[in-house]
TrEMBL record:
InterPro entries: Cyt_c-like_dom, Cyt_c-like_dom_sf, Cytochrome_c-type_DH. Pfam families: Cytochrom_C. The chain crosses the membrane at residues 6-25. Keywords: Heme, Iron, Membrane, Metal-binding, Transmembrane, Transmembrane helix. The lineage of its organism: Bacteria, Pseudomonadati, Bacteroidota, Cytophagia, Cytophagales. One of its GO terms (molecular function) is electron transfer activity. It comes from the Bacteria. Residues 53-152, 199-292 form the Cytochrome c domain. This is C-type cytochrome.
Amino acid sequence: MFRKIIKIAGMILGIVVVVIAGYLTKAYISVNGRRNTNYAVDVQQVPISSDSAILALGGRLAKAKGCTECHGADLGGKVFVDDPALGHLIASNLTKGKGGLPADYSTTDWVRALKHAVNRQGKPLLFMPSHEFTFLTEQDMGAIISYCAQLAPVDRGFPEGNSLGPIGYVLTDLGQLPLLPAEMIDHQRPLVKEVKAEISVAYGKYLSTSCQGCHRENMKGGEPLAPGFPPVMDISSSGRPGKWSDEQFIATLRTGKTPEGHTLKPDEMPWTMAKEFTDLELKALHLYLNSL
Ligand code: HEC
Ligand code: HEC
């Protein structure tokens, strides 16, 4: 009897192992196929300038849009995921130092990365959130590129390269990990030239692209983004920020403390990025959120 149970348990375990191995193989093949897809995109040009006001705008946007969070404060590159199950992912060195971008990295290459999430070889960039940057105006994208292209060289290399772990493959296969932003982008859509910087719903909507990834398109928040993270709060008119004055909204995003006394952790709610928005931008953002 006992031996029979062991035998049946062994058979079940064997079947489970075969099924898991089969699924893993399927996930590896399918995700690797997607990583090797070639994207032949028509790259639009954006205005590049060495004007100090444009460079200052580009520098501020590099912080507000999170470039410095992933690529490091000096944009000299950073390992931003290092987990044997998930993977080892490097946000590239964006300077022209050793280990950085090649000396002939052109404006076209920059736009291909920022608007399309595609590299020079036509392959999709991993995890680079260009599905958000693709909505930048020509003007703002131009300012960011103008700023990044003149950075002081930083010598920092990552010879180990990117790799994806088993959980990384599975989550990507299940559509739970935005590994390939190139798949989420409309590559034909031309860039918008400019959105007027004023306290308007339209300008607030433009700025809210930075919040959408977490707070969702309707800004009503939802499920946590990853296990161990708090649920994402509703920041539309039906949420708490709907009851705040503009001053309270601005103070919350500058200090991480809400009027109700709740402290927002920068790794859960990145107010350290949002604090780079100007007063005018935050007022436009608040106006837009309250219109939802
Ligand atoms: C969520 C993290 C994250 C953010 C935010 C981010 N990047 Fe990236 N970026 C990456 C990763 C990861 C790669 C490398 C992708 C790869 O090697 O496949 C990358 C690659 C790039 C590349 C391509 C380099 C090459 O080898 O061709 C450029 C250019 C770039 N990022 C610029 C920016 C700029 C400018 C910003 C801000 C507007 C930004 N990134 C924001 C993660 C990020
Ligand atoms: C990386 C994900 C992420 C991004 C990007 C993000 N948020 Fe959040 N946000 C959160 C999470 C998670 C919470 C809840 C944090 C908590 O419970 O402590 C939150 C909370 C908030 C709160 C507090 C709401 C309350 O009821 O107290 C405000 C305000 C807010 N976010 C505004 C914004 C704005 C504006 C943007 C865009 C500029 C933005 N967030 C971008 C994840 C994000």
